[in-house]
Each structure stands twice: as C-alpha cells, then as structure tokens.
C-alpha cells in the first residue's frame, strides 16, 4: 500500500505498549502527545506518520475505555489517511472499522453502521467479495445491525459471512461455528425457530465429526442422544447411560469449546421452549460439566 | 441489554494499521 511505519515509530509504539500494559497511562499519554507534537512540527499535520501516532494514542485511550477520546483521534487519523494514502487504502478501511467499533462500544450503533459499510465497500473492492477479511467486516456490520433490531439485514450479512468462512477457511474454522451461533440468534428473533435449531445441531454435529470422524449408531452427536432420551422418557424406557458420559463426550470434543458450550446451552433452551425437558436437561448437564 | 453487550464485545478490532 506504499506506506511503512518507520523504525522510530515502531520503537515508540512498543514502548507505549509496555507502559500501557503496566497501567502507566500517565507516562504513555504524554509520551504520545510529545511525539505527536514533534511529528507535526517536522512533517506537518497531513502525514501518514502523524496518523500512525494518532492511532497509537487512540489505542491508549481505548484501553482505558475512553472511547470518545479514542474516536476523536481516529477520526483525525482517518482524515489524514484518506488524504495521503487514498480513499480506498486498506488503512482507511481499517480505521473506518475501528471507528465503527468505538461507536459500537458506546452503543452508538446508528453512527457506527455507515462507517462499517464504508469499510466493507473498500475491502470488497480491494480484496474481492469472498475474502475472509470481508467476512469479518460483514460480521461486525451484522452485530451493529442486530443491536438495532434490523434482522433482515443481519440475516443477509451473517449468511454471506458464513458462506465465505466455509468456502475459504473450511467447516472446522472457529469462525464458522461462531457465525452460525450469531445467525441462529438472529433466526430466533425472527421466529425462525426450526432454522435456529438446525444451525445449533449443525455446529454440534460438526464438532462431533471433527472428533469422532463420523455419525453412526455407535457415535451420535450429543443432540441425538438428547432427543433419544426425550423419546424414551415419554415411553418410560429410561436410558441408563448417566449424564456424566455426555460430559465426557463434550470433554473429548475440544473444538471451539466456548462456542460449542454456548451452542449446547442455546439448543437446551430451545428444547425447553419446545417442552422437551429431558432433552434440555441432557444438553444443560453436558454444558455445565464441560464449563 | 445483556445480549447487546455481548454483541458489543464481539465487535472485532482491526490491528493492521499498526502491524509490522
């Protein structure tokens, strides 16, 4: 992209990281501000190095949860990068994204959304429509829209992101399961309960296949066990397999653990909603044991 | 509200402007 952070700024950045990681913001902030002043004197305000320095200082504020201050600095950095690097530069897309994140952290989803959309347009133009970074941007956009209740758009963005992740990174990539979970939460809001249920089952089945290689009578994903227990409880033929074995199933299944745990709980909640209490308890027990 | 907060936490930062 034609710009490289000069060595002295890298050193300064690393030093600032050290101070910030120790919580010594009273050192980090003045250090950044002095460097900014010096840079502006030597290079002028509209220089990519100044944008870099503004970015570094913005991170220091961000890490203190001072999102408004961080956004102010990033806005300035954005303006400089647009002027000096070009409006479609990847650094401009990244800055737009990060501004959107800062607005999102403050609950300003309506303001964040157009920034995120602009970042998406640039990424699609530069990287192509099916790049994993485009999927990341779609995911951020979906999250912002979901917090505004725009579920039709959310569904579209998550579906696109999912297609990209599956095609480019494969079905076992952690982003696939995370996006399916998010899409399922959107489906729930839309009343598409069956679609949500299917996604949760897909996640658990994929985790199962990754660990055990197949689905057959001897190796069933946990949700199949849960539904069988539900059926048996209705016919009063109790399955003697103790719950702890399902915790064992889960422990053996280390893929995407937090996501799989969330999925177990979400599908359990869905079962509960459907009155399938035995099935719900099976998954809830499994989720609890694996936490 | 909790779900909104969870989604806020999922927003992904882009570090590429400061990677080298």
**Strand percentage of chain A:** under 5%
- Tally of separate helices of chain A: 14
Distance N terminus to C terminus of chain B?
38 Å
Gyration radius over CA of chain A: 24 Å
Classify the secondary structure makeup of chain B into a structural class: mainly alpha
Approximate shape of chain A: elongated
Which outline of chain B best applies?
Answer: rod-shaped
Estimate the mean pLDDT confidence of chain A: 92
The total count of helices of chain B amounts to 1
Please describe the topology of this protein.
The complex is a heterodimer of chains A (291) and B (20).
Chain A lengths: L6 H15 L3 H19 L4 H16 L3 H19 L4 H16 L3 H19 L4 H15 L4 H19 L4 H17 L2 H20 L9 H13 L9 H9 L4 H17 L3 H14 L1
Chain B lengths: L1 H9 L10
Note the main attributes of this structure.
heterodimer, A: 291 residues, mainly alpha, 14 helices, 78% helix, elongated, B: 20 residues, 1 helix, 45% helix
What does this protein structure show overall?
The complex is a heterodimer of chains A (291) and B (20). Chain A contains 14 helices and no strands. Chain A has helices at residues 7-21, 25-43, 48-63, 67-85, 90-105, 109-127, 132-146, 151-169, 174-190, 193-212, 222-234, 244-252, 257-273, 277-290. Chain A is elongated and about 80 Å long. Chain B has 20 residues and is an all-alpha fold. Chain B is built from one helix and no strands. The relative contact order of chain B is 0.17.
Compose a concise summary of this entry:
The complex is a heterodimer of chains A (291) and B (20). With 291 residues, chain A is mostly helical.
